[in-house]
Amino acid sequence: MSSSSPKLLVFDLDGTLIDSRVDLCNSVNAMLKHLGKPELPQQVIASYIGDGASMLVRRALGDPEGDSTDEQYVTAALTYFLDYYRLHKLDFTYVYPGVIEALEAIRAAHPTLPMAVLTNKPVVPSREICAHFGLDRFFFQNYGGNSFHTKKPDPHGLLTLIAEASSLTVHTIEPPQTIMIGDSDVDILTAHNCGARSIGCTFGLAPHTLEAAVPTHIAHSPKDWPLLVGL
């Protein structure tokens, strides 16, 4: 591995490793129906994904700034959404074509290169989904939106993974030796906020947000990942 090659790869989940759009949208609409509200088009709900379950629910309820005066109502809506999603998270969700092959290629070329997941999805369904699809075998850690006191794009989670990965290797890993891979500006800004590099995935849920965030590299398919990380 050359000096410019990464020492840590961190992946987003939704829109990067898996396409979970339909199950998330169905869960949001089930929540809205339960509350007696009109359902929303999938493309609208999909545009709300990326900042965690709470913001997804708030946006669907028409509270995008999180300034609702009825927090009990929002909490009840979030609870229903999470309970429904817990049961239906694997109805239509699938791993993007090329993801397994790309991860296997990276692992084969660099058996000791640490890889992890950092998502704003709650950590329990994130880990369960990765385990279901056999993705967990590639990652030393999987952190979710409720793993820390902050979520992406705050860099705390990424910095934590850098510190943990450093403890697994002989040398300390620095942020510039880390690549955050994701499909939205949230992931790219997370990398920017701690001095890491980034790969923006145009095949995901929010490719329209990538350009303004200015990722280090662009991937049009998971098959691009091995080349972009220096294989």
Automatic annotation (TrEMBL):
It comes from the Bacteria. It catalyses: 2-phosphoglycolate + H2O = glycolate + phosphate. GO terms for molecular function: phosphoglycolate phosphatase activity. Gene3D superfamilies: HAD superfamily/HAD-like (3.40.50.1000), Putative phosphatase, domain 2 (1.10.150.240). The keyword Hydrolase applies. Pathway: Organic acid metabolism; glycolate biosynthesis; glycolate from 2-phosphoglycolate: step 1/1. It holds the Pfam family HAD_2. GO terms for cellular component: cytosol. GO terms for biological process: DNA repair. InterPro entries: HAD-like_hydrolase_sf, HAD-like_sf, HAD_2, HAD_sf, PGP-like_dom2. Belongs to the HAD-like hydrolase superfamily. CbbY/CbbZ/Gph/YieH family. This is phosphoglycolate phosphatase. The lineage of its organism: Bacteria, Pseudomonadati, Acidobacteriota, Terriglobia, Terriglobales.
